[in-house]
Amino acid sequence: xxxxxxxxxxxxxxxxxxxxxxxxxxxxxxxxxxxxxxxxxxxxxxxxxxxxxxxxxxxxxxxxxxxxxxxxxxxxxxxxxxxxxxxxxxxxxxxxxxxxxxxxxxxxxxxxxxxxxxxxxxxxxxxxxxxxxxxxxxxxxxxxxxxxxxxxxxxxxxxxxxxxxxxxxxxxxxxxxxxxxxxxxxxxxxxxxxxxxxxxxxxxxxxxxxxxxxxxxxxxxxxxxxxxxxxxxxxxxxxxxxxxxxxxxxxxxxxxxxxxxxxxxxxxxxxxxxxxxxxxxxxxxxxxxxxxxxxxxxxx
Length: 300
Fold this sequence. Notes:
Elements: H1 7-17, E1 22-28, H2 37-47, E2 52-55, H3 66-77, H4 82-93, E3 101-105, H5 107-113, H6 115-125, E4 129-132, H7 141-149, E5 153-155, E6 157-158, H8 164-173, E7 178-181, H9 194-204, E8 212-215, H10 221-228, E9 233-236, H11 238-248, H12 253-278, H13 286-299
Parallel strand pairs: 1-2, 1-9, 2-3, 3-4, 4-5, 6-7, 7-8, 8-9
Helix pairs in contact: 2-4, 2-12, 4-6, 5-6, 10-12, 11-12, 12-13
């Protein structure tokens, strides 16, 4: 089995050394404009992203809520597809060889390109991982082997409804990290129960030795901070995209890219600040801790 002493493992190791959860923002490639994506990726790294999940636009994203659906539709309307997403990552890699990039999406675009061709092109572009919502672990064995041959980590979702058998199956073939969906429903849903998440993660870790990131329902610094105390990574997408969308509202296309980049990076920096103070070393002041939470909450 291929090992991954790679960018993903290194990113989680750095976060662990700093006694905090990793920060994993999700953005939709091509939104608000195709030219926005690469500069936005760089800006999010500067704002504190440890890993970037880059959404592949797809016309029928069943697991995504309205915010991400609209972002995908907007990208598709501008002609952005899987080929363009790989080109964006390749451009990003010309100046950033450290930040892990995980593609997230659905099987259809990959099947249209062909699994073998995708794996080859993704490796050349500098992709570190792939999370496909509708590739169940029980049916993806050959593709997993193909991804591993091209040094791409197969990443899987687990949910509150995942059976012990499904968790075991994911634990055997997943690489990089596992993404725990904290809520039943689509991205952007609310009612996050941190105590329930902690209990679920405890069960997952009995069968999964990889880091476990938590997403869905995380919308501000406070919720991100709470989840960071029990998870290895905080994955956040809908609120980030919504923040950028609102910043672009009413602006001409020529101004939308920079507005989205500035708003997204500023908002994510507040989330990163919350994660940085969530696991204080012994001796840190409680007053400083509270002030950090309040400041990051204001930014969020």
